[in-house]
Design brief:
Length: 75
Amino acid sequence: MTVAKLFMSGGSQAVRLPREFRFGGSEVEIFRRGNEVVLRERPANLSVLLDIIDSMPADMLTDLHDEPPEEREGL
């Protein structure tokens, strides 16, 4: 397993990534998944979102029922 070095940069903790883990852009997304911290390249456009939507089951929204608006007196 490859190990990365931690250091302080100003008031933030930073990670020095080895060459084989470098990113192409100037920003990454960061989030926690359980006890892991995940860095991933930030997508340049919405194609990633469209791929996620496309991978969802076709019947995912079949249980939603949109009721017609209620008739109200005085409105």
